[in-house]
Specification:
Layout (H helix, E strand, L loop, with lengths): L4 H7 L6 E4 L2 E2 L10 H14 L5 H4 E4 L4 E4 L8 H18 L5 H21 L3 H15 L3 E4 L22 E5 L3 E12 L6 E4 L14 E6 L5 E5 L20 E12 L3 E4 L5 H37 L8 H26 L2 E2 L5 E2 L2 H26 L2 H4 L12 H7 L8 H15 L2 H11 L5 H11 L2 H13 L38 H4 L6
Parallel strand pairs: 1-10, 5-8
Antiparallel strand pairs: 1-2, 3-4, 6-7, 7-11, 8-9, 9-12, 10-11, 13-14
Helix pairs in contact: 1-2, 2-4, 4-7, 4-8, 5-6, 5-7, 7-8, 7-9, 7-12, 8-9, 9-12, 9-13, 9-14, 12-13
The structure holds flavin-adenine dinucleotide.
């Protein structure tokens, strides 16, 4: 069953979670105006999967069941799947800014791979449990939020060494029928309006952290779950051209004695496997982030051109504006190309799933994580200051000012004032509002801080192969001197034709007269 966006919203009515937004208890997550833009953005992933022109990228056949499922829930089986997913994420994010649901895909693929690996090592049955759970989610076409980033407390201490044991989510009790978890996940996108939360470990663990190596699926309204969230986007703000319609909420999720039956538990104490699960998720997620931010880039490029035109300038005929727009295109397509490379060099896993090549995946995410600020800057540069100086939309209806404003703020006769204002407000929304800050931060820290990507790049890059290659070049004399002889000879004492002579013994230092030895006070 492939739900529509409207079905998705309706399906949330079955849930009665404990959600607070801005200090207020939310009565119905499906109907709360503060959450509506977030639900609408996820809704795009549902609607697009039902459109025939998007079927190839927005859906896939799940190999374990033979059923057609939404791409956001699909396990990759080939490099083409990886490419389709990348394109699908770009497609839904250029419509919605950020459609959020790709996190479910990233977690599902990491879990498919990790559970298989844990079973292989420990003789457990996590993989089949996970596959059963995944089939159910696919059949009901659900959305899962990813609750990975713990509150973490003191960053210098491991989970078990924290003064407050609940700043990381942990197994508090093991029962015959399941586990009881406690703790806090601090940043969870879409937390208040998903069907399920996938609790995942956020780091590598040591043996002492074994209780913190936990992964499980929890329904949003499970007893003991409390979500404290921000509004999704800028609901109700008339100047928010885009993010009043599409936005994203993030929530703090507190788990207090939450019972999880075994069939929903996919890691419970196997601390050695925590790192694999976390980094595999990160590789999938950073690949998805590339598609997501490329979609955001598409919005900026279009808005940038329209803004230039509304200002009376043709970007193609104005060298410095064309230059800035090409810079923006270079940034967006540059990191997107890393996503394409990560897809085409994607790797099969012993579980049968395919994952993006990790170096390209991390390099692409690292590029966008800092270049998002350049993307915003270029938007500001080509637009001018009007995007933050423009009087608010209420002024558009003020009989004392609106006529004069329209006369004075029209730039070219064929672009009406109202249209110029619309584009300016869109550009403000995307690059200079609170929501724009959200796009910066999700780019910089979402999926791990830049440092986490750098560590993964260094860990996965074939550095030793590069070293061996240069050593071979040296040995073969490829880097020979002008006389054609090798620039390096490994045989001791044979660095040149004559051989080395020992360095001369230095002359004993003559003692200087006191007046010369003392440094000048002026020095
Ligand atoms: C908008 C947004 C949406 C997000 N959505 C989700 C989501 O859906 N699910 C989810 O699980 N997470 C989500 N995240 C969380 C994201 O993964 C984290 O922000 C990221 O991993 C960084 O963690 P942090 O924010 O706790 O920062 P910190 O870990 O506090 O990092 C701050 C700085 O300190 C450095 N640092 C941290 N610890 C150490 C250390 N021990 N030694 C040296 N330096 C250190 C970091 O490198 C960084 O520069 C989201 C984040 C954002 C901003």
């Amino acid at each position: 069953m492939l739900m529509s966006g409207a079905d998705f919203r309706d399906s949330l009515r079955r849930y009665d979670p404990t959600v607070f937004v801005d200090g207020r208890r939310v009565e119905s997550i499906a109907d709360d105006p503060q959450l509506a833009p977030g639900i609408a953005a996820i809704g795009v992933t549902y609607d697009f999967a039902r459109r025939s022109e998007y079927q190839a990228v927005m859906t896939g056949t799940q190999h374990t069941s033979g059923k057609l499922v939404n791409r956001m829930l699909h396990i990759n089986r080939s490099t083409q799947d990886l490419l389709n997913k990348l394109e699908a994420v770009r497609l839904v994010c250029r419509e919605s800014g950020c459609a959020q649901r790709y996190l479910t895909h990233d977690a599902f693929n990491a879990l498919f791979q990790a559970t298989s690996r844990i079973d292989e090592d420990k003789g457990t049955d996590y993989h089949q449990r996970f596959v059963n759970y995944m089939h159910q989610v696919q059949a009901d076409d659900l959305t899962c939020g990813v609750a990975m980033t713990d509150a973490k407390g003191d960053r210098s201490k491991r989970p078990h060494a924290q003064p407050n044991p609940d700043v990381y989510v942990r197994i508090k009790e093991r029962r015959k029928d399941g586990i009881v978890i406690n703790g806090t996940k601090a940043i969870v996108t879409a937390a208040p309006y998903v069907h399920e939360l996938l609790v995942m470990p956020s780091r590598n663990m040591t043996e002492a952290d074994a209780d913190y190596a936990v992964c499980c699926a929890v329904p949003l309204d499970a007893p003991g779950v409390t979500i404290v969230a921000r509004p999704a986007g800028r609901p109700g703000e008339s100047a928010a051209k885009f993010s009043a319609r599409y936005g994203q909420s993030t929530g703090v999720v507190m788990f207090e004695d939450v019972f999880v039956p075994w069939d929903r538990v996919f890691l419970a104490g196997e601390w050695e496997h925590s790192q694999f699960l976390t980094t595999t998720y990160a590789t999938h997620h950073r690949h998805s982030c590339i598609g997501a931010r490329a979609g955001f880039g598409d919005l900026l490029i279009g808005a940038g051109v329209l803004m230039c035109e509304a200002n009376g300038l043709e970007p193609g005929a104005t060298p410095h504006l064309r230059d800035r727009l090409v810079e923006l295109i270079k940034i967006v397509e540059g990191f997107f190309a890393c996503g394409v490379a990560a897809s085409t060099y994607g790797q099969g896993d012993p579980s049968g799933a395919f994952q993006p090549e990790p170096v390209f995946s991390n390099v692409g995410k690292l590029l966008l994580s800092t270049q998002i600020y350049d993307m915003h800057r270029i938007g500001h540069e080509v637009s001018g200051g009007l995007i933050v100086a423009l009087p608010g939309p209420d002024e558009d209806h003020n009989p004392e000012t609106s006529g004069r404003l329209a006369d004075m703020l029209t730039a070219r006769p064929d672009v009406p004032y109202a249209q110029r204002m619309e584009v300016a407000r869109l550009m403000e929304d995307l690059t200079a509002s609170g929501e724009a800050g959200w796009y910066s931060l999700i780019s910089l820290h979402g999926g791990g801080s830049p440092e986490a990507m750098k560590r993964e790049i260094y860990r996965n890059y074939p550095i030793q192969e590069r070293v061996a290659m240069v050593e071979k070049l040296l040995d073969r004399g490829v880097l020979a001197g002008e006389d054609g002889k090798p620039a390096r000879n490994r045989q001791p004492g044979r660095c040149c034709v004559e051989g080395c002579s020992p360095p001369a013994v230095p002359e004993p230092v003559r003692e200087l007269p006191p007046a010369q030895a003392k440094p000048d006070a002026a020095e």
